[in-house]
Amino acid sequence: MLEYCVCPKCERMIMLDSEFDSGFCCYCGTHILYSEAREELLNGLRASIPDEYVLEADLSELIDEDDAYEDTYGFDECQKERAIAQEFLGKWDFSGAFQAFSRALDWYPRDFESRCGLMISGILRIRDTENWERYLTECTSEIRSQSDWKMATAALEYALDILKKFLSKGGRFVSPSYTVGFFEKLAAGFPELKLTAAQIFAHCLNVENAPFTDAARLDHETTQFAVGSRPNDPDKNLSRGMLFVLRNHPDSRVKDSLCRALFVYERAVWLRARDSARISDALKLCEAVTSGEFPPEDVRIVLNAMYDFLMMGGLEKNSTEREKIMFLTTVYDYRQMREMERFFSSRRFFWKLLGEVYLKQRGASLISAEYKKIQAKIAQLSG
């Protein structure tokens, strides 16, 4: 079974098969022992997690003792399985912990400590990212008191801290298209964790969808080194994830960098292919961010990036305005241009392109009222 490790020589995140005593680092080529590489990772994780989050530790301190020790069939067996699961957590064996917590809940489904343990071990074993939202939903649906909320918060904070540590070592293992619902639900239910959730999600969203940008801060080989379920086809619905980051991340520079990485990167490829799904997604983002929910700075970030994507602004220094217009008239129809009008109506280039696209319509005329209106707008913005 593949396990996360860290190469003792180059300190990069790698994966080795635990069934073999040794293996090779895929970055520096060093022959290393599995036990040493695994211990290198675990030592780094332990050093980075505050003592109060060590989970061999007692989530049980946060649960109502009267509720926990009801004389109910299966509770004793549940306790035994939970103790086994806690031992696995102490060894950072999240797959073993997940199986033991599952057995504990089979015996006594109302044991909230086991429910929290199942959630965090399910997240940290990484295998089935598409089920993270279900684990969170099942856990929060069992919450019965303020104490339970505190336990769930502590468990999630512990899991997020370890995820951040994995990311700092170069790991990229979370598919945004599968986990966006999890992060949305987490931020809504646990506002104190929304910044950490946004930081993790922004990183994964960027590396998954724009691996060669500076914002990724990881090399191509690392981005290909992933664990967990991933969609077979590229995700063309990036606006939902971008909106999550806009709502929950306080750093405008991060939001601007991410928005450009997701939508402006490789835009020429998308436009030449007339990728209507990508174009519609960009317009959906514009629509959402101008709904009145977002502050002016976020609106500026999105509309500027979407203009550079959809109107080819900014980057093609060697292309003339006329060349860009002639190309874009092959990409958009008049309906699409009208959709963009309320977002880019202050741009002279937009109106010049609109005029050219309009003239390609059946029945269009240089002397029509519509064309005269477009020309008047161009003259106004040129003055």
Describe the model:
With 383 residues, the protein is mainly alpha-helical. Among the domains are: 2-48, no CATH class; 52-155, Serine Threonine Protein Phosphatase 5, Tetratricopeptide repeat (Alpha Horseshoe). The protein is 61% helix and 4% strand. It has 19 helices and four strands. The strands form two sheets. It has a two-stranded antiparallel sheet with strand order 1-2. It has a two-stranded antiparallel sheet with strand order 3-4. Strand 3 and strand 4 (31-33) form a beta hairpin. It is elongated, with a radius of gyration of 26 Å. The termini are far apart.
Largest sheet: 2 strands, antiparallel
Number of helices: 19
What class do helices, strands and sheet pairing give?
A: mainly alpha
Q: N- to C-terminal separation?
A: 68 Å
User: Quick check: average pLDDT?
Assistant: 83
String of helices and strands: EEEEHHHHHHHHHHHHHHHHHHH
Segments where pLDDT lies below 50 for 5+ residues? 51-69, 215-227
> What multimeric state do the chains show?
single chain
- The CATH topology annotation of the domain at 52-155 reads as Serine Threonine Protein Phosphatase 5, Tetratricopeptide repeat
**Measured on Cα atoms, how large is the radius of gyration?**
26 Å
CATH architectural arrangement of the domain at 52-155:
Alpha Horseshoe
